[in-house]
Design goal:
The chain is of the alpha+beta class and about 475 residues long. It has 15 helices and 23 strands. The protein binds flavin-adenine dinucleotide.
């Protein structure tokens, strides 16, 4: 009897295994021991990943979810933020997962996940499942005929004849490489240093930055390096990390880079050493972003990061893994669906380039630059939602109509920042010009979002936005900057 085989038991492999088990499909999972306590990458979810987490994954995993109510960007003289909801909102939208999920529910369900206990709990669930034959083994040889994988040899000499193979080996892409699938790098080589800080107090009046994902663009003049850093609050701890061109910091230790990042937050009014006094282990890696020229073959799929990686501020890594997991049971019957998976994932490439423009581009100098940036970001969400709807089974006419409409909305909003802002951006985006870095964090008032505020934003912000555009001395063309 031949079974589907998942190669790699990190998060992508575990998610696919859970999905196959839920569909009653017996399978083999090749992987490593239970994950330990080391800080993980991949804790901020985008809108499609958040919905899938809330609706598809085992409910016990919700214990490790935290609301992500905004994304902020400290960039040059400007602090900007897109706020999805109140900080005290419920985690799981009631309408999620039933029929065509409205855009509103999607952006209101966004999550952070504490990946350390999450990965351990997911591992335990998968390991205990009778339909999963978990083998702590590496795959060391792959045989194929006419694009069909015929045999996998394990490091104990066992030979498996798989019905279907899921490559869940991340950027290593063990199956992808064996099948001769080429990869194109889409960024310079990056050095990433990341850690967590613990011991924060949970308090009602937590500062605004403790309710969402925060991005900081470091620059040479202010911080001594050009880099992009993240800060993800997870209740009593925060996950932080920094990514920068690997060639520029060859002589600097991981510890020094971590200090540099914490100093950069401090410079902008976020005192992590004071608020989270207990440091964790500091980890690092070198990698680049990239995409392979195909994602599937006659009986195999490159799932998640084995197919492509997108600039981290997109928070899309888990989304690519969850999409593969949702599709996994149907792929066994219809391997050609792999093409649809690849096409859906490729839509992220535009977003990748958009983020690269911000990361490598000039610092923001006027509040309109922040508004424009988030307007382009928001414009891309409907098409991503549409793509994820189209991966779902069946031809529900309501879903098809919603999908078409969302594609149209994205296409239109990408052409004009003003139109996007007028339709819904002004209600949710705030952007403040504050050249004194130390005062930037204070620039935002109370963390609230209700209908009145949205309406006030719609009415009050557009004159200020146009005034800022005029002051900035440029008329930004969305055709060149939108994703
Ligand atoms: C700086 C940075 C920040 C990020 N932030 C986010 C974020 O905020 N949100 C988000 O969603 N994503 C984020 N990501 C992406 C996310 O981290 C990845 O998508 C995710 O970690 C990929 O997981 P994976 O299971 O596919 O691969 P990996 O975690 O790379 O796991 C691969 C597994 O395959 C196993 N393996 C390898 N070779 C073999 C073999 N021959 N046989 C058997 N097993 C094998 C390995 O042991 C390992 O367990 C970020 C990425 C980076 C670089």
């Amino acid at each position: 009897m031949s079974y589907p085989v998942i190669v790699g038991s990190s998060v992508t492999g575990l998610l696919i295994s859970q999905s196959l088990s839920r569909a009653g499909i017996r399978h083999i999972l090749l992987g490593s021991p239970r994950p330990g306590e080391d800080p993980r990458l991949g804790e901020s979810m985008n809108e499609t990943a958040s919905l899938a987490c809330s609706t598809v994954l085992h409910p016990s995993l919700r214990a490790f979810y935290f609301p992500k109510s905004h994304i902020s960007l400290f960039n040059g003289e400007v602090l900007s933020r897109v706020q999805f909801d109140r900080a005290d909102r419920d985690l799981v939208p009631t309408s999620a997962g039933q029929g065509p999920t409205p855009y509103r529910a999607a952006v209101k369900s966004t999550l952070h996940i504490d990946r350390v206990p999450f990965d351990q709990a997911l591992y335990d669930l998968v390991h205990a499942d009778a339909l999963c034959d978990f083998r702590e083994r590496l795959c060391v040889d792959i045989r194929s005929e006419h694009d069909r994988i015929t045999a996998l040899t394990l490091d104990d000499g066992t030979v498996l004849e798989p019905r279907y193979v899921f490559d869940a080996t991340g950027a290593r892409a063990v199956i992808g490489r064996a099948m001769g699938v080429t990869r194109k790098a889409t960024s310079s080589r990056q050095r990433v240093v990341w850690t967590r800080m613990h011991g924060g107090e949970s308090c009602e009046a937590a500062p605004w930055w403790r309710h969402g994902t925060n991005l900081v663009k470091l620059d040479l003049e202010t911080d001594g390096v050009d880099a992009i850093a993240w800060l993800i609050p997870l209740g009593e701890r925060v996950s932080i990390g920094i990514s920068l061109n690997a060639d520029t910091v060859k002589d600097e230790s991981d510890e020094a880079l971590s200090d540099r990042m914490i100093d950069a937050f401090h410079r902008r009014g976020i005192d992590l050493r004071g608020a989270f006094p207990t440091p964790d282990r500091i980890l690092s890696l070198e990698h680049d972003y990239g995409i392979r020229d195909r994602a599937h073959g006659a009986n195999w799929l490159l799932a998640g990061a084995s197919f492509m990686q997108v600039w981290f501020p997109s928070s899309s890594g888990m989304a690519t893994s969850l999409a593969a997991a949702e599709l996994a049971p149907r792929l066994l019957k219809q391997p050609a669906l792999g093409e649809q998976y690849a096409n859906t994932m490729r839509t992220y490439q535009r977003f990748h380039r958009y983020l690269a423009q911000m990361i490598d581009g000039p610092a923001h100098r006027a509040s309109a630059h922040g508004m424009d940036f988030w307007s382009g970001w928001l414009a891309d969400i409907p098409v991503r939602m549409a793509e994820s709807f189209d991966l779902k089974p069946g031809l529900d006419p309501r879903r098809l109509a919603a999908s078409k409409l969302m594609r149209l909305v994205s296409a239109t909003c990408r052409r004009s920042a003003s139109l996007q802002l007028f339709l819904w951006g002004f209600g949710f985006i705030r952007s403040v010009h504050q050249p004194t870095h130390a005062k930037q964090t204070e620039a935002f008032g109370p963390y609230r979002l209700h209908h009145l505020q949205v309406t006030a934003g719609m009415l009050g912000l557009w004159p200020r936005y146009y005034a800022s555009r005029i002051r900035a001395g440029r008329a930004p063309s969305r055709n060149t900057t939108a994703p």
